[in-house]
Structures are given as C-alpha cells and as structure tokens.
Task: structure prediction
Amino acid sequence: MSAIVSGTAHPDFAAVEVEFARNFAERGEVGASLHVTVEGETVVDLWGGHVAGRPESGEAAPWLADTLVVVFSSTKGWVALCAHLLVARGELDLEAPVAEYWPGFAKAGKAAVTVRMMLDHSAGVPTWREKLPAGAAYDWELMVARLEEEEPFWEPGTRNGYHMLSFGWTVGELVRRVSGRSLGTFLREELAGPLGADVWIGLPEAEEGRVSNMIPFVPDPVSPSAFTEAIRADRRGLQSLALMNQGGFNPNRREGRAAEIGGGGGMASGRGMARLYGPFANGGGGLVDPDTLARMGDVAVATESDAVLLLPTRFALGFMKSMDNRRRASGDRYSAILGREAFGHVGAGGSLGFADPACRMSFGYAMNRHGEGILLNDRGQSLVDATYRCLGYRSDASGAWTR
Result:
C-alpha cells in the first residue's frame, strides 16, 4: 500500500490499487476515493491524498474514507435512478406528455415533449437564452419557472443535445411533482438512506466538515475541442449559454452545496456512488422490475454530433453509455469506455458512478482535481480499465469492454 493511499483491495483486484496509487504518483491526483462492488460484495475500497480549500488547518487535511466532494454531472445518474423508481412503481409513464404531470411546461411550443424526451436529452431545453440572475441556481421555483417559458432550441424529439445543468430541473421537477417530495428528499428517503449510500442532492450543513473543495482544470489552448472553439466563436451561442448561463452555481461555496441542483451539484464519496448503483448491478435489488432494469441499460439515443457537446454521444434514459471517441481529432477524443451493458454517469473533471449488470459490478470514483475533457480522463479511465481486466475482460477495442 502506498503511503498516500489507504483502504483495502481484494487480491484479485490488486491491479486496481496499483492504478489508484499511480494516479497520485504520475497523473496529478490530489484527493480521491474509489469503491467497487461485485455481486454486492466490496472488492475495492480505497482513498488517498488530501482535501482542497481547508485553510483553517496549517497543513493539508488528509482525504478520509468519508470525504465528500461535488461530483457534478455524476449527479444526473442519481436523478435518473429516482425517475426509474417511479416508472417501476407505475407512477410515471415514459410515453406520457410531460404536461400531464407538469402543465406549465407545455408553454412555448413544448406541449409534445414526453417524459422519455426529458430523460434522453432530446427535449430541446439544454439551457436558457436570457441571462439568469445571480443566485438563480439556488432557487428551485425560479429555475422551473424559467424552463416553462423557454422555447425549445430544436423541435423536441428530433435530435438530442446534452442538457448540461437543466436536466436537474427538467427530470427533477417530474420527480418532485409525482412524488410530492423535493428531489433531494426523495433520493435520501427512497434510495440513499435505505442503501447506506453517502450521496446527497442538497447537503445538510452538519456534513460540511467532511467536504473538499474542487480544483478547476485549465484548458489546453493548443488543441481545443469543437465545444471550446464554439464558445470562443460565439459568446451567445448554444455552447456558451450551456456552460456559462448557469445561474451562479459555485461548487466551492456553502450555497452551492446546500441547493438541490440535480444537474451537477450532488455530493458523494466513491463508496457512496458504488453503493447507490449496487442494487442495479444485481438484478434491481427489489427496487425495480426486470423490464425497467433492462430499459435503464438500453441505448435510447446515439448521435454523431450532440447538439451541445458537438461530439458523438450515446445515452440510455438518463444515463451515459460507453462512448468511444479515441480516434477523433486531438481536441475531441473525450471518451468513457465502459462495459457494453453498463449504465451510469460521468461528472465534469472525471468523477464516475455506474452499474454493470453483465458482471454484477458497481463502481464509484470521486476526486477533487478536475482533469481534462468533457468525459473521463486518464485517471478515471485507468481505474475502469483495471477493474474490467481484473474481472476477466479481454479488450475495449470495440468501443466497450468485452470478455
């Protein structure tokens, strides 16, 4: 065990521990946690490094087993889990118009938007045209009201474009209206609490002492992605609005962590994310029926050019699927290579939580230093790769890990 790494790994998964330590030694990791379960049993439980942004201590505070960090869009996967729980109970119909549950959403040409379109990023409201006021991201009712008034950026259902932050209020408001509880409360009462999963959408102040701030990534100006080039070319374009017009969300402030921001404000440890996905890697754990579970892992949309991200993407209903862009131009090689049946979500900077029913594996990785790219970077992907190899998988040449 490296001096900077704590925890345990089953001998069969020693290679995962090696890669976790290499992330600190060779790839610039600062603080991180990793947890993997197979058939419901923990096979990897590692953490290491130090937290960021704790000036009250004269030296860097160590990253502990229960350190929490904002995992950005990994949160979307939890929101999708909440929605599918309601689908499995017969309370939410994927083919129904959103307006059946949320009448105000039908305004401005959105009457035909279905629940399915909300989940597969084809609803057409990935951002807001008019500038959101400061602090808007912390006001659920305001963000929902602004979505009601927003005209779609394309005809709903005709193409998909990543709903970068708005997903938390489109799908999250459906969860709230159907369940009668706030998104964060539903997650806690129906999933996180019963599963003992240390994940939060809306962090209680009592948990603040366990938090690490985030260290942002500075993009490489030499090899920009198409997404970055679009932002530089048009500060009022779709890509700029999606990234910049987010209502003042700051993950390193208490307000940002306290707010229920389902599109990117969730707090977790690696252990928490793996536990949350654990039942869905093992037949649904009694939470969803087999048909719902199968649907959760199926590819719902795939495109050569996502309307927002401007690169090929593949999504299930609310989850990312394996995405292989390794042979594209240098600035657009962002990928997340998972198993073919795996479903979950990457977060900005490289966090990741997912389930793979094919090998009954759940995975959670959280870190405080952002890496390069829209999807995974070399730190997170190295951990995924080592895990699949330890499970006997042979190759990822097809674009997904196969035995």
Q: What stands out?
A: The first strand starts at residue 5 and ends at 9.
